[in-house]
Design a protein that fits this description.
316 residues, binds uridine-5'-diphosphate, binds magnesium ion
Length: 316
Amino acid sequence: MAATLSPACSIVIPAHGEAVGLRHAIETISGVLTQQGISFEMVLIDDGSTDSTWEVIAQACTDYSFIRAARLTRRFGKEVAMRAGLQMSRGRSVVVMDADLQHPPALIPEMLRLRETGGFDVVEGVKHSQGSGLLRRLFFTLNSKLTGVNLREASDFKLLDRRVVDAYLALPERNLFFRGMIAWASYKTATLPFTPDERQHGKTQWSFRNLARLALTSITSFSSIPLHLITTLGIVFIIAALLLGGQTLYNKLSGNAVSGFTTVILLLLITGSVIMLALGIIGEYLARIYEEVKRRPQFFIQETLPKDKEQEPPSL
Ligand code: UDP
Ligand code: MG
């Protein structure tokens, strides 16, 4: 029965604090799809917004029948909100996009066409790289070296075939990194370049801190290089210790011991910091393991809309 109800396409939109622009986004996106005669549903996930995003969604839901929505109990973050949306989605393809219209809705028909005619399972929106600060550039480069995922160009604007969605949802991990996971799964992928439009309303929810946390997740879930680096660093330190130790002993035996505390203090500071850094890196991995073994649910749903349809699918 579900199969006969499933629309060609689900649009999954995570939203946190998008009250101002959301209505416009819903209308723009649905306008494009309706014009092209594409059957679709729109899955809106309110990621614990503190403004009136949920009211906007509820209103839109009474106005339009294509909307299904869920409100998470608190802000769980975009990654989790996207997962909640994917779980709710029923379409044969699923398009994930932002609520701020930075992902051009006009590309959706093209994405669907690529899936249909080109047989692609994933169509990936790739950002034309925008100018960004030196620190960010450095950070993106380092991250892509470590993980093989280019965070700067990769975006969450993607079309996924139903089987990719199912494969993604079946992943047992709690710590999720959508872009990385889809790239890692390596289904047949087409890329579609786009230039992100300026944010129309509100402001970005991504601080540098959020971005750093995302990078940490991507690194710890895709690479154990930092752990190997610790070993390498240890070896370097042993070699240095042998050389310096030999020299010190030689000096001692030949009667002119190293004088002054400067060397001692410097060595203490350097080794101390390196040990703490190494422990920190190990700690990051340990924390991820701890998160994983707890097996907690990733999110809780406060309420879903529309109420009646949820229990009783409409008869067609
Ligand atoms: N978002 C979310 N939870 C968060 C942060 C953001 O659901 O904790 C949503 C936000 O509402 C938007 C999308 O994720 O639909 C992208 O956010 P934003 O536009 O702030 O990020 P950017 O465009 O800078 O990547
Ligand atoms: Mg945005």
